[in-house]
Amino acid sequence: MALALPRPHRDDIRIAVGGLLGGVLLWALGLHPRAPSAPVVLCAANWAPLVPLAVTAACEPLRRTRPRFALLVGTLALTADTVTVGNIATVVLYTDLMYAAVLYGTPASARRIPWITGLLTVLGGVVPAALWRDPAALLIGVGIGVVALAPAATGWVVRDHRDAAEAARLRAEQTALLAEIDRTQAVTAERARMARELHDMVANHLSAIAIHSTAALSIDDPRTSRDALTVIRENSVAGLAEMRRLIGILRDSSGDLEPTATPTLDGLSALVEGARTNGLAVRLDADHGPMPEPVGLAAYRIVQESLTNALKHAAPGAVRVRLRQAEDTLHVQVTSPYLPGDAPRAPGSGSGLAGMRERVALLGGDFTAGPVAGLWSVRATLPLTGTEGDAL
Hints:
Blueprint: H1 10-29, H2 50-59, H3 67-81, H4 88-104, H5 107-132, H6 138-218, H7 222-251, H8 268-277, E1 281-287, H9 293-313, E2 318-326, E3 329-337, H10 352-362, E4 366-372, E5 375-383
Parallel strand pairs: 1-2
Antiparallel strand pairs: 2-3, 3-5, 4-5
């Protein structure tokens, strides 16, 4: 199956037609670059310049698709033109083929052709002058330089600028692509951060509301219902306050609002007291000093989420929260009674453990969660130095 050649460019066809018509016009007017050695009469010899002209013009449509082949055939046609009275249009078309061979040819051709034409220019001037001992012979080299070296050098300069512009365009596209990737990653990271923050803030309150509303509906006792409704109201108000704060931060496009209520380890006592109000028997054992804000926030959220899970899943018994600071590390452990197979007392999304693991990973720490000796244990080791992540 024969391969179809690429279609020539419209401009190349126009150049070929224009050059051919111009050469025919010059021939018809008798304008030749070289005078005939004998009187010119209307005979077959007068048609000789038209053959190289036609061949060179036929090469023009190939100047982009087959530049080396076009230059080779054009060179043979120009050589044949030198043994006739010649045609200026043939020379002009040949210079365009030389230019196109450098501009559209392979990188190897673009490098070699200017060197070859330069060498031919020097040899074309020096050798005849040395052999004939006539300085006028140097004009041969000048002619070769004008016909071959000048268009080749011009093609090299244009190609170099074109390649530089293409490289700049590719770099700009790559920069834009990297910027878009960074933007997408930043948006994804921000969405994950807000999802963790929203889950940790609201899940505790909603879990308590679900559990106590179930108790109020299942136990026909006015006092129990009143106590449950009190806890439900407290958790509803606290949850709404947290939601309003978070929504206010999200809606503030200017960035003036800051999460001023960002919790720290100083609020653990209040967090534990709230868990006790919700029905958990919690013991807090904390021994730590001042620490970076991201570490404190991560530790607070881990304890908060662990208490929320204990409220939803834990069996009856004491929940213990331990915090120990050892040199440049903060150890957090929350243990709660655990009975495999028990259904949770409130529905969950299953994203709590993933959120805790993400917070610890952002700080470069270690996180484990699972049953240990009949207890559900959550352990986190948070480095106090070199915390480059955003614990939010």
